[in-house]
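Example 3.2
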Amino acid sequence: MTELQQKLDEQLAELNLQYLRRLQHELPQIQQQVLALAVDHRANWRERVSELSLKFHTFAGSAGTFGLPRLGLMSRQLELDCKAWLGNQEPPPAIEFKRVAEVLEQLTVTELSESLQPAIAARVEREVKGQALIYLLEDDDATGNHIAQTLGSYGYDIHWFREVAAIQHALALKTPDAFIVDIELMQSEDAGLSFIQRLTPELQQIPMFVISCHDDFHHYLQAVRVGVAGFFVKPINASALEARLQRTLSLREHDAFRVLIVDDDVLLAKHYALVLQNAGLRAEILTEPAHIFVGLQQFRPDVILLDVHMPDCSGPELAQLIRLQDEWLGVPIIYLSAETDSERQLAVLIKAGDDFITKPIGDHALVVAVFARAQRARQLAEIMTKDSLTGLLQHAHIKERLAVELERSQRHQQEVSVVMLDLDHFKKVNDSYGHLVGDQVIIALANLLRQQLRKTDVIGRYGGEEFLIVLPECPLQHAFKVIEQIRVSFNRLPFVVAGTEFHCTFSAGIATGTNTAHPDYSIEQADQALYQAKAQGRNQVLLATPT
């Protein structure tokens, strides 16, 4: 099954579950309506039966699509019953409504209970599958245990094998998300390397990280020739290995580049969109320049493809209009035009453009041009907004995101939690082991936060060893459980320097951001709770006291 097909199947399964949840709510209501008709089957009976007929009609048309054919057939029959009653002058006897109520009771008890549990189980299975599956081939117990323990603490599903035969047997049953292989196993000098070379072309596409005792050009070259994604020399820095592993896997799962196509030629715009979508990009079409700001806010493109000649508003005019807002200064604008005169192309590019594509353009050339610009734009955006050490949002940008989430929570009446987190006794780590090791501790915590928090959560390095975390749609008590679980996981992470192992802890304070639009207020509340956690002995999470 392809990744695209698997994603589609998961989306369909989630829709099925949502439909079942809706039925759990709606079927009892319909049953009550039918029982009310059984008690008093004359008052406004025609209007009430018409309403039931419409509801049964809806179920008859949708239930089969969502995996409930029996419900669909019964609903179709009940719809026919309702139509037959409506064809008479007098209402049906009360016993008919009692019969319908019994049918609905049967559906509520059997159909839903039998269908809902597999759907929930499928969702739970998908959530478990969300853990990256890692195969480790390592015959040295100390190294293998260190890597397995560290990656396990980060939330990876790590399977450790000591022999090539064992990992080959596992591959016959399940394909991992990544391999970590010691290329110098005791079986022979090149046992691990030979294992990599014997992998099928499909398995060779999986990210491969190698471990070696050697730190020389020859071994690095061998690793490059078999297509590895990372090379690590013993003794292994498992946190650095996890950082490279996470970065590689996140690149493979990176959100598709988004392209906004602004063109008044609808058929041509649709063609461009299909070409880009088939290449794995997301594309949306905008035919009315007047709607540009709505389109930008809703779609947030990485690249804008802009026709030069459009009625009412030309491409260069629209580009200059876009650049009037600082938020969109970094988004590349690529002009599309049949204009071949180089002087005129340059004149257009000066007006807020970044590139010029001459129509007609081949499909492959279009994809390459757009992909290159989108990739570069996203890289630059990350450089400008991310902390160089951790890859998390910088101080100013995490505060901006907090303001956005606070405003969103007020608009949608949703709870949001704000976390201030600080490493305990971090100066002692720097003094005892050096600043490079201190940086590794900070990176390890940043990676653990990324690994265990949701994609919708926002994480920033607030300063030094302090982090600010925003948890949208997350009540305080749930936020406490999440951060407490991360605290325990971080406490278990082993850091090894010159054969000496040590552990680190952090303290955290959590405040609610609900009912306030002021980031500084939420930060102050969380910071006060953090201060209390430090004062009470550190290595703990405290909730802010509402004021």
